[in-house]
Design a protein that fits this description.
Glycosyltransferase, two-stranded antiparallel ribbon, single chain
Length: 357
Amino acid sequence: MRPPILAFVCLAAAACTATARAQQKYFQDWPENADPHAVGDRVALHFLSSAHMTPIGYPEVCTWYGALRYAEATGNAALENQLQQRYLPLLTPQFASLIPDREHVDAEIFGIVPLQISMETKDAATQQAGLHFADRQWSKPQPDGLSGETRYWIDDMYMLEILQLEAFRATGDHKYIDRASDEMVAYLRKLQQPNGLFYHAPDVPFFWGRGDGWVAAGMTEMLLSLPSDHPHHAEILAGYQKMMAELLRDQSPDGMWRQLIDHPEAWEESSSTGMFTFAMVEGVRHGWLPEDTYGPAARKGWIALAGFVDQNADVTNVCAGTNKENSLAYYLARPRRTGDFHGQAPVLWTARALLEK
């Protein structure tokens, strides 16, 4: 039985109070180079001027989604319109091949772009274009009901989840959030380790920074939409809080996290730092985490992250795309990139979270 409407009103009011208090206490009065509005604007506008990947891959999709949400949260109608217009040429024969069209978790996530745009424009055709990907992801389910694209790589805890979550947000149809939460609980039970972190895959026992970042961001997005009375809510919240507690212990004194989270010799990596900071900011804002414990860590993470946005609005120290491999040397030696979409996306997610009322 769902709580009565009055209970929802009270919970919403309490969340708004917690958000306002956290923003006033920890999420304002920024150093000049770390103002989230200035940083967010620069990175979003830089994204607009960027060429498409060929075909469009999940790093561009996640950045595009982040920019759309950022523009909406900051009331920047001009930016929002430009980001929507970026989608329209893809509907023409000349550019249609840029849309990824294969049944794979890294390709299906493209659907979050039309789904997010459809929520902003109320366009039914755009919504249907996004739902095509969300529904195809479950067109060949496994015997246990999970998506046929399930592979138990930790990246999937964002890739699979965000598509189904956006379908739920766009339609209100609970089948989508049930799919997403079933999937997330299965991954939690299989991959979360006693310390709260996640191996890259069952056969790869390394705590890779961005991989765990996808997990943190995925659980955060899930908790933003999953009703508190849903059967999986308590387990997902507990998994999220357990992860955040370990990440708090692993944060470097300067606010960053490393390419391998638990290896002090590993280099400081910006995309994972952005994802963990996003997760902590939302946790503080929504009362999932104690604000006086995690508020300072989130603030420190954002200030450090902003320092990796260079004069061209490119994000530096971004780990290159990474396959799984059972080798410590492999992870420690991954190349560092500048301007990679993997780095832009979490900057925009976090800027939006810091500014959204």
